[in-house]
């Protein structure tokens, strides 16, 4: 039974956490808005390991696409942040300070400001901090109006973001795109890490994405299929993440399934022992009229019960583990990961463990039924 | 009050066990007729084949050769579950070692045979209580076998043998594990069942027990050597 409950516990915990993660990602993306397009250089993810590049001129191209309401280029880099002698790494997020960008940002949950204000176009050397950067990363909380140093340049904190639950956004230092260009030597090239675009109301995001692709292809002078950029709708992004998650989950559940098989073998072993121990009992039952089918169902029922109780134990432990992971995640600052406790998960795991129990009991039950009543009655055990 | 119709008929029954290359005959051509309502003792020394004979009559085993008719039906070529069906309905077993299930209470042991005939639970319970009453153990119905004396266990076994109203009671050394006095009580009970019209077939090696029967069949070396009425 130990094998069964460990196996079920592992499967339940993995599915619970996996489902919770999926829910968290879906939620995160729906916060970001379904009408958003993300344009990235081809061959990389979020600015890492990218050989192709995007430039401010691309932002202008996207802005001219008819189905696009508004597009903005951002710079995402990692940088050192110094505050009162302490240095920490953070992601530095450079974004425009003009009126239109601000309106765009104000509609996105991740960029809401709790204290202070958003950028104004006249701002220079100012920063808005993610809630974690302000509250937790440094020994002392960073307060509004204080100074921090990003990559040897001083910035005045003019805003602190509302906690969004997304680790990426809660740990960022937001500065104006001009400051970012200066910090990372991108003034000349006008390179951007990513372009965000908002689709015009009433237009299907995937149609707009295709328009953007067409325009950029023309501008970059490349053929379809050889693009040096990627345009992703929010929906595709969710899908992409979910696919990755699914693969991870399938692999993990597959590993857990191995322990279930081991558990099943354990049940088979237990049942064989039980059949041998109860040979005489089987003989007695046969002598009073038990048919082979009756004996089989008695032993199958028993092994299904073994599976059932193993399953209950496994579900309890599995859900506790995933709850513990959730608590750990929250204490690590990731408060969007909620362990998933669905009825169908519990019911499915229970049914599954009973099925494993039943299958494992099949062979021993058959051997019990095949016993000759005369020999069985003569057995001393 | 004996009815003349044979309930069990054995026709030149042989049972041969194969031990490696050697054939060991346990029954060597036994023919026997048992009429309904008889009380018969099958006697013989150990190794004579009397247990094998009882297993045949009790449908626990099938003969290598020959035919066995129970109630006019040939059971010698029946399938395993067909035999189980007959055992459950027509035959009640009483064993030397009682053979009660140790995990079940007296009442559950008595009602178990009815379970295999798919009798409704309420009917089972009612009949089980009745039968425990009959053997005088109504106060012990929730006791496990380990909490009962040998004589009480054998009485539970007798009650169990009656659960499906069988025509034949097969008793294999029913007093073998009991002291003389308790054994006598059990014999009284079997005689009473005989008087109520049950066919009783008893296997024993003890002449004192055998003399309770109305007919004694003596088996030796797998053959019937004498067959007489008292």
Name some characteristics of this structure.
heterodimer; A: 381 residues; alpha+beta; 2 domains; six-stranded mixed beta barrel; two-stranded antiparallel ribbon; 12 helices; 19% strand; elongated; B: 230 residues; alpha/beta; Rossmann fold; six-stranded mixed β-sheet; four-stranded antiparallel β-sheet; 7 helices; 10 strands
Proportion of strand residues of chain A:
15-25%
Strand count of chain A: 12
Helix content of chain A: 40-55%
The neighbouring-strand order within the major sheet of chain A is 3-4-9-6-8-7
Mean pLDDT of chain A: 84
Estimated structural class of chain A: alpha+beta
Number of strands of chain B: 10
Distance between the termini of chain A: 24 Å
Largest sheet of chain B: 6 strands, mixed
Share of helix of chain B, binned: 25-40%
**Which residues of chain B sit in consecutive blocks of at least 5 with pLDDT less than 50?**
none
Number of helices of chain B: 7
Structural class of chain B: alpha/beta
From the alpha carbons, calculate the radius of gyration of chain A and give it in angstroms.
30 Å
Order of helices and strands of chain B: EEEHEEHEHHHEHEHEE
Order of helices and strands of chain A: HEEHEEHEEHEEHEHEEHEHHHHH
- Tell me the count of domains of chain A: 2
Most extensive protein-chain contact, per-chain counts: A-B, 18 and 23 residues
């Amino acid at each position: 039974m130990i094998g069964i409950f460990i196996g079920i516990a592992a499967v339940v915990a993995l599915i619970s956490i996996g489902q919770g993660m999926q829910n968290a990602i879906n939620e995160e993306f729906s916060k970001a808005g379904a009408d958003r397009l993300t344009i990235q250089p081809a061959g990389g993810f979020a600015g890492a390991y990218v050989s192709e590049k995007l430039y401010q001129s691309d932002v202008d191209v996207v802005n001219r696409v008819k189905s696009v309401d508004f597009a903005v280029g951002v710079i995402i880099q990692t940088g050192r942040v110094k505050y009162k002698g302490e240095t920490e790494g953070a992601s530095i997020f450079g974004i425009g300070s003009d009126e239109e960008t601000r309106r765009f940002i104000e509609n996105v949950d991740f960029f809401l400001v709790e204290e202070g204000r958003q950028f104004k176009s006249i701002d220079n050397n100012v920063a808005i901090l993610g809630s974690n950067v302000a509250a937790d990363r440094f020994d002392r909380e960073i307060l509004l109006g204080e100074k921090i140093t990003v990559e040897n340049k001083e910035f005045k904190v003019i805003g602190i973001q509302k906690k969004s639950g997304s680790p990426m956004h809660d740990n960022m230092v937001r500065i104006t795109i001009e400051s970012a260009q200066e910090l990372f030597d991108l003034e000349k090239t006008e390179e951007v890490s990513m372009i965000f675009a908002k689709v015009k109301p009433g237009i299907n995001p995937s149609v707009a994405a295709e328009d953007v692709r067409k325009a950029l292809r023309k501008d970059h002078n490349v053929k379809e299929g050889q693009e040096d950029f990627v345009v992703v709708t929010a929906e595709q992004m969710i899908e992409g993440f979910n696919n990755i998650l699914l693969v991870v989950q399938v692999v993990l559940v597959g590993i857990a399934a191995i322990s279930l098989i081991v558990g099943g073998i354990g049940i088979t072993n237990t049942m064989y022992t039980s059949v041998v121990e109860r040979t005489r009992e089987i003989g007695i039952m046969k002598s009073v009229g038990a048919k082979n089918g009756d004996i089989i169902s008695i032993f199958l029922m028993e092994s299904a019960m073994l599976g059932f109780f193993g399953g209950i134990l496994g579900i309890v432990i599995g859900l506790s583990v995933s709850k513990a992971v959730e608590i750990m995640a929250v204490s690590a600052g990731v408060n969007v990961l909620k362990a998933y406790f669905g009825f169908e998960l519990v019911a499915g795991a229970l049914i599954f463990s009973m099925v494993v129990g039943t299958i494992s009991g099949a062979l021993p039950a058959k051997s019990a039924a095949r016993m000759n009543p005369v020999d069985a009655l003569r057995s001393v055990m | 009050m004996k009815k003349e119709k044979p309930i069990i008929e054995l026709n030149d029954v042989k049972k041969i066990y194969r031990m490696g290359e050697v054939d060991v005959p346990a029954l060597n051509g036994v023919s026997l007729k048992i009429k309904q309502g008889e009380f018969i003792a099958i006697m013989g020394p150990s190794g004579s084949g009397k247990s094998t004979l009882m297993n045949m009559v009790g449908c626990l085993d099938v003969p290598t050769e020959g035919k066995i008719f129970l109630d006019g039906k040939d059971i010698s070529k029946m399938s395993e579950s067909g035999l189980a069906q007959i055992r459950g309905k027509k035959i009640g077993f009483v064993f030397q070692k009682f053979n009660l299930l140790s995990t079940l209470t007296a009442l559950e042991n008595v009602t178990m045979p009815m379970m295999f005939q798919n009798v409704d639970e309420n009917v089972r319970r009612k009949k089980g209580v009745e039968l425990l009453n009959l053997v005088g153990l109504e106060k012990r119905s929730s006791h496990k076998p380990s909490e009962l004396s040998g004589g009480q266990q054998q009485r539970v076994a007798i009650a169990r043998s009656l659960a499906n109203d069988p025509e034949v009671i097969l008793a294999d050394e029913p007093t073998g594990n009991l002291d003389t006095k308790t054994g006598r009580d059990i014999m009284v009970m079997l005689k009473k069942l005989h008087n109520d019209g049950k066919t009783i077939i008893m296997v024993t090696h003890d002449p004192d027990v055998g003399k309770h029967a109305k007919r004694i069949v003596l088996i030796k070396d797998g053959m019937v050597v004498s067959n007489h009425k008292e």
